[in-house]
Amino acid sequence: MQNAILDLAEARHKFFLGNGGAALMELTRRPHLRFIEGGNGAGAMAQAHLNHVPLVLGNFGDYTTKPGLFDGVKSALRAGCVYSPYRGHELLDDADNFISKLYPLTVLRLAPGTITGKERLITLHSGEFEWPAPDGRVELFRYDREGRRLAAGNAEVRNGRIALETPPEGLTVAELKP
Predict the structure, then answer these.
(1) So where are the chain's domains?
(2) Phi first, then psi: what are they for 159, rounded to 5°?
(3) Exposed (0-12), middle (13-18) or buried (19+): which is 157, by Cβ within 10 Å?
(4) What are the φ and ψ backbone dihedral angles of 126, each rounded to 5 degrees?
(5) pLDDT tens digits, 55-85
(6) CA 133, CA 109: separation in Å to the nearest integer?
(7) pLDDT on residue 37
(8) Which fold is adopted by the domain 96-178?
(9) Does the pLDDT of residue 141 top 90, yes or no?
(10) Rounded Cα gap, residues 120 and 132, in angstroms
């Protein structure tokens, strides 16, 4: 049935966003996106790993305050998933906020608390990371435990590695610049 729905969407040149993990290999081969509802519990988030991008809808926790949103982003990332806002993104003013900086993302590697992408590396951890990005300077977006952006910074990718220092209970996004 899901393949028939996808065939119809593709024939009409429509975008399809599915709810739930793509459990069939034939579905994972198709160029469409899916998400997992975070409100189904943290255990359900692992289903998102079967999708092209492990999106988790932010309909869990406190999505009515900025600290609550930030906790949701970190909870999803701990499960190796990317937070997709439910409503709370309206609380965030500037474009360099901790949700906007998660995107765009072409996933290369998932790990608890770290997602390595073609365009960016997102992490809750400090340390040295493998990142198959071109050598050179990248822009850092660092957020404290409340989700407040800290002073702008830069780091260097050298020989496929980058060293990052994440604030305690915070988040760091290293972003390639075009």
Answers:
(1) 1-91, 96-178
(2) 50, 40
(3) buried
(4) -100, 155
(5) 788 888 898 999 999 999 999 999 999 998 8
(6) 13
(7) 81
(8) Immunoglobulin-like (2.60.40)
(9) yes
(10) 10
For the chain, the 3-state helix, strand and coil shares in percent, each to the nearest 5, are 25, 30, 45
137 vs 128: CA distance, rounded Å: 15
Is 35 in contact with 53 (CB distance < 8 Å)? no
The token duo for 45 is 């988030």
What are the residues whose beta carbons fall under 8 Å from the beta carbon of 163, sequence distance 6 or more? Answer: 127, 128, 129, 155
| Closest alpha carbon to 142 in 162, 127, 123 | 123
The one-letter amino acid at 15: F
Q: What mean pLDDT is predicted for residues 9-22?
A: 82
